[in-house]
Design brief:
306 residues, Ribosomal Protein S8, Chain: A, domain 1, single chain, 17% strand, GMP Synthetase, Chain A, domain 3, alpha+beta, 3-stranded antiparallel beta sheet
């Protein structure tokens, strides 16, 4: 049986979901925790726990253990009495009084049970058909495709900087200062935060920064007609991570050019995938595409068809 991957709010829920999918017992499988998940920050950035289930295999040299037989009760040897036996007295049988036996009650006859219908095998689960997404109005599409003007970029930077400072003050971050700039390549606002509590903003694997920039992007997009992405950075965390991701993408490009086969990168968030898409969009030898769903969505680099 192929390994089964499942996810849930906790590791226990993910294991239960994987056991239901496989139809096996807990002692028949091996469980590997691939991600312990996270409860997020302020209800944002929640990540599910992920496990991988593999069926146990028994080789020819190590047969499956047979169920152990129940232990036998030790036999008790008869206890011999060392005292001499005395001759038993013969007792004469006494005549028993006659008793008239009442006729035994008849067992009530049971009605015949109705025939049970034959048990049918469970039908395979049908894939859930998703309703097609409603088409966006033509006006919204035209606005989304239109490049952001210099005035709109300046206004977005000022509003995003103000929102980030207010959120940091509500989070009791000591003396926060934020500097906003416009990234024309990715059409986003980049905000650099400086504070003596900057290490608290990074958190574990940048999860606090992810929650903060998600909340800022949501609040900024509600005030503008066109949604604009916001990146909140502290201690150059995102800058270092983007450089590492771009280096991995360039190495994958060299592999595609040498072998002529596509390369699938590790799952990553939408901002990192968008960074690679924009960087390699004009590359003459490779193309990029995303595949997968949810947290398993990844980027694929393929040779360009000429």
């Amino acid at each position: 049986m192929a390994p089964i991957e499942s996810e849930g709010r906790t590791v226990a829920e993910a294991v239960e979901a994987a056991l239901l999918k496989s139809g096996l017992r807990r002692d028949q499988v091996e469980i590997t925790v691939t991600d312990e998940g996270s409860t997020g920050f302020m209800g944002l950035g929640v990540k599910p726990a992920k496990v991988r289930l593999t069926e146990k295999r028994w080789g020819p040299d190590s047969p499956a253990p047979a169920p152990s037989a129940p232990p036998r009760a030790p036999s008790r040897a008869p206890v011999r009495n060392s005292a001499p036996r005395q001759p038993e007295r013969r007792r004469e049988p006494r005549p028993e009084p006659r008793q008239e036996r009442a006729p035994a009650p008849r067992a009530p006859q049971r009605a015949p049970e109705p025939a049970r219908p034959p048990v049918r095998a469970p039908e395979p689960a049908r894939p859930v058909e998703r309703a097609p997404e409603p088409a966006r109005p033509q006006r919204e599409r035209r606005e989304a495709s239109k490049p952001v003007s210099a005035a709109e970029a300046a206004e977005a930077c000022a509003n995003a900087q103000k929102l980030v400072v207010e959120l940091l003050q509500l989070m009791a971050i000591a003396a926060p200062t934020a500097t906003a700039s416009w990234d024309a390549d990715l059409e986003r606002v980049k905000i650099s935060v400086e504070s003596q509590d900057a290490s608290l903003l990074v958190g574990r694997d940048g999860r606090v920064l992810e929650s903060l920039q998600f909340l800022t992007t949501l609040m900024l997009s509600r005030g503008n007609g066109v949604p604009i992405a916001v990146q909140v950075d502290a201690l150059s965390y995102w800058e270092k991570r983007e450089q590492a991701v771009l280096k991995g993408a360039l190495d994958a490009v060299e592999t595609v050019k040498a072998t002529g086969k596509p390369v699938r990168m590790e799952p990553m968030d939408s901002s990192m995938r968008r960074l690679i898409h924009r960087t390699l969009t004009a590359h003459p030898e490779v193309t990029t595409a995303s595949e997968g769903e949810g947290a398993w969505r990844k980027l694929v680099i393929r040779p360009r068809v000429k």
